[in-house]
Amino acid sequence: MTDQVAGLAFPCDPQGRVELDTLGDKLRNDYFFAHALIGLLFKRPTIKLATPLA
């Protein structure tokens, strides 16, 4: 059996703050879901720089 990794990504500023008012309903609900399950299903959030696609 392999470990499954769940991951979600949300747009944020350089300090990691997510502007919830700018998210659509689905993404906002995903954010609240993930936030509620930090430590259970999800690890603590990390900030990664977005890189443009080549």
What does the radius of gyration come to? 13 Å
Outline type: globular
Largest sheet: none
Number of strands: 0
Q: Which spans have pLDDT < 50 for at least 5 consecutive residues?
A: none
The overall average pLDDT, rounded, is 85
Describe the secondary-structure layout.
Layout: H1 25-36
Describe this structure in words.
The protein has 54 residues and is mainly α. Helices cover 22% and strands 0% of the residues. The protein has one helix at 25-36. The termini are far apart.
Task: List its salient traits.
54 residues; mainly alpha; 22% helix; 0% strand
Quick summary:
By secondary structure, the chain is mostly helical.
